[in-house]
Structures are given as structure tokens and as C-alpha cells.
Amino acid sequence: MPWYAFLLAPFALIFRVVTGIRNWLYDLGLLKSFRSPVPTLIVGNLSVGGTGKTPMVEFLIKNLRDGLRIASLSRGYGRKSKGFLAANPDSTAEEVGDEPLQIFRKFGGEVPVFVGEDRVAALERIAREKELDLVVLDDAFQHRRLRGDAYILLTPFSMPFSRDFILPVGRLRESRPGARRADLVVVTKCPRDLSPAQKQKTVQGLRRYLSPDTAVLFSKIDYGTPYALGHDVAFSGSVVLLSGLADDRLFVEYCREAFDVLEVLAFPDHHDYEGPELDKIAGVSQKHPGKSPVLLTTEKDAVKLKSLANRGFLGEIPIFVLPVEARFEPEDKQMLLSYIREKFRKK
After folding, report:
1. Is 76 annotated among the ligand-binding residues?
2. What is the model's pTM?
3. Options 1.10.3810.10, 3.40.50.300, 3.90.470.10, 2.60.40.10; which CATH number does 5-221+327-343 get?
4. 196-218: per-residue pLDDT in tens?
5. With 0-12 CB in 10 A as exposed, 13-18 as middle and 19+ as buried, what is 312?
6. Binding site annotation covers 113?
7. 53 in a known ligand binding site
8. What confidence tens digit (pLDDT) does each residue in 236-258 have?
9. Is there a common fold for 5-221+327-343 and 227-322?
């Protein structure tokens, strides 16, 4: 907690009261929640950004699409369009958002990807246009107007919601008891050498805010082999990192271990690259003569950089993408997927 937290405490109290009253009104039914005509699985968190929602949504789609007709729906954070849209091969990040476009491209367009601010209206439209067994909603834990069929709550290992505080003192969008709406809790971004004692301590901290039958699972971030973005230049191993993430610590830490990191260019989450930033990025190779550096970025940032590269920008430095996915221990993976398959099995 920052030293100036006491100055922010009154604002945090106001925010807690407002969000608490809102949740109370929904719990009592005084504010109405609606069921979707399509079964829904909600993936979300209590905190703002950086919990690994997109890798989790991709994990679910990858492991469930063979047995279920599945799609994803999100608000499309950062897009410059409004209303309901379906991603297509010609979609841009400006139209549907960087993360929805990433999901659409990762699965080759075989999995429908939709965006819409009003999730209830979007689901009603999806039901009219598609025959689906399940829609996975990204970042809809606080969208109380929709009553989901199952809820997966994500919380990062480095700062679980049980140790975090409500905005603006901490990063929580609502107070900790909101976690009781979760059917499953996944502790994300765990260290590779996570010990049983660390697991037990984390679970003990979370348990007081959860229903007794809520399972707590653990996942890690796994990085793949960098691949080229629209060129045939070999990967040199000398990299300049570029990312627009809510929390880039794991990305930078892994890259420093695996590659020769010459420079780190960090921008805010869902950042749009333009103007002087592009000149800075394009000229970065001149700062490291003899190293033959490449630009290494995230999958989320790559969907924006690809469109820039196609328009002639960033031609001075090859761009590579570091793929990422959520990984579970076998028993946790089986528990998660078995729960979902049982919950959403075809009748």
C-alpha cells in the first residue's frame, strides 16, 4: 500500500459504499438481472487488469471447442467503435479491440468472437444468429445485469484479492466479499516453482471470502517460441521488448532470462501506437549497432503492430511475437474442465 493511501481512503470508502449498494440491490432483486438465452460462462476478476483473462479464455476455448459449440463475447475494451460486432478476417483492433481480435486470429476464425457493451442484448442477438452450446464472457464479473450460468474468478498470485484494497487505495473494483459469486477461483501467474506451502497460504487467505464449496485452482503463464510477424528474418536473440500491458513484470522477467534484452519499451494497457512513438520504435535498431536487434512484443500488441507494418511503418526493425498460454497442473486442469463440461453438457 502506498504511503499516501490515507489521503485516498475517503474516496475508497465512497467507492466501496457505491459498489456495495449496487451489489446489494442486485442480490435483493431490486435491480433486475437477466438470464441469457445461450448458456454463459463468465471469466473475470475483482481487480483492474493484469490477471490473465485473455490467456484463460483462450485456454477454455482450446480445450472445450471439440465437445461444445463455443464462442466468446467481451466489451471490446479500447475499440473505437460502438455497439454489437462480430469479428471477421477484415476486422481491425480499432473496430473490435485488440484482445478479441487476438482470439479470433488465434483460432483461425473458426470460433465466433463478438463484442458489445450491453452483454444482455448481445447474447440475445447471438442466440438469434448462431446455434451455440456456450458463450465465454471475458471480463463480465461486475456486469450484474447479466446472470451467468457459471463464474470463474481470476486473481494474480503476486497480489490476490484477499490482500488487495478497493480503488483508489488498491486495485479492487469491488470489495472482497464479491468473490462469493464465484463458482471457481483460479490463482493466475503463479511462479514456476510454486510450493505446497505457498499454495496453502494463498488458499487460506482467499477462503474467508469464498463459499465453502468453491474450488481454488492454480495456473501459470507459459511462453512459446517467438514467431515472425510478416517477414522471414531470423530471430537473433537480441531483443527490444515492446508491450502495452497492465502488468508487464512477468513478460520482462521471462525475456531477460531467455534472451539478450537490449531495451524495454513499456506503454499503458491497450495502448495505441502512433506519432513520435513509432519513430522511436522504428529507430531503435540504430541505437544498438552490431547486435541485429529484433522487436519482441506480445500477442495483444501484435494485432496493432501488424496493421502498422502492413501500412509501411516499422520496416526498419523485424517484429517477433512471443506467444503465451495458461497452464495448469494435470489435477487442476481436469477439475476445471470436468466442472465446465458437466455444467454445460449437451442435454
Report:
1. no
2. 0.91
3. 3.40.50.300
4. 999 999 999 999 999 999 999 99
5. exposed
6. no
7. yes
8. 889 999 998 888 899 999 999 99
9. yes
